[in-house]
Amino acid sequence: MIRVLLVDDHALVRTGFRLILGTAADIEIVGEAANGEDGVRLARQLKPDVVLMDVQMPGMSGLEATQRLVLGKPAPKILAVTASGEELFARRMLEAGASGYLIKACPQEELMLAVRQVAGGRRYLCVEVARTLALRAIEGGGETPFDLLTPRELDISLRVAAGESMPDIAARLNISAKTVATHKYRVFEKLEVANDVALSRLAQRNGLMDSQS
After folding, report:
1. Residue 79 in contact with residue 52, Cβ under 8 Å?
2. Among 3, 48, 144, 193, which is disulfide-ready with 206 (CB 3.0 to 4.6 Å)?
């Protein structure tokens, strides 16, 4: 039996995963968490075989949670299941120790296949992500200025670039507005941008968000 822990801040998404995976005779959902902190705690407590991990969540991100969990003994296999197929997110999750990367819009059969493959010690990348990573490698590495950022800085930078205010980001991530401001201006220094508009344009040029018309 493959023991699975669901970590996603959207209850509806967790419900969907539970209903889909619950139809498989060889898969058991052992727990759910709505943020990275609870995900790490439950994973250490329940010792699942596979953790379905969202990437962007309030508080501790999926990337930070993955980095912590892969150091455990035994360490669960991490399958990132996210709305974004961007190369940077996929590469950062795989570098952190995730065994697979899947888009939430995938068919039910692919979700079950991915869980079984990573549980069996193999890697799984959905077609969209595998193609993007391959093309980036052929074109020459695919690194962006955003590779300079820590997981928390990356999360905050993309929220700022998308137009979220510092109070809203603070509430979303369960941290103080002062902490958000500190991260934000550290991002500006690392990326050598002067303001939110310049940050947004840099994110667009590097394919991390849709261009604004």
Report:
1. yes
2. 144
